[in-house]
Amino acid sequence: MNAIIHARLDPATLAILRELQRKHGWSDSQIVRRAIRALSDVEPRVTKRRIHGLGKFASGVDDLGSDKRHLRGFGSK
To answer: Which long-range contacts (CB under 8 A, 24 or more apart) does 68-76 make?
Structure first.
């Protein structure tokens, strides 16, 4: 599936676009595709946050994380 993008460019950005077209002979679409890929390469990847130590210890209690009875009194003095 192809997507169409419409963008308003300020004069400075339009000048850069035209310079890239003259320099490389690329179309508007080629420049946008290359720019998106280049930005993707330099942006840090977002990874799912993980809980450190999750699954490293065996408690022997199958429902430890889902049964609130196991937490009764936890944190009280």
So the answer is: none
Residue 60, pLDDT score: 81
What DSSP line would sit under 16-74, residue for residue?
Answer: HHHHHHHHH---HHHHHHHHHHHHHHHSPPP-----TTTTS---S-TTTTT-GGGGTTT
pLDDT tens digits, residue range 5-59? 999 999 999 999 999 999 999 999 999 999 999 999 998 888 887 777 777 777 8
- Does residue 20 contact residue 31 with C-beta atoms inside 8 Å? yes
Position 29, amino acid: S
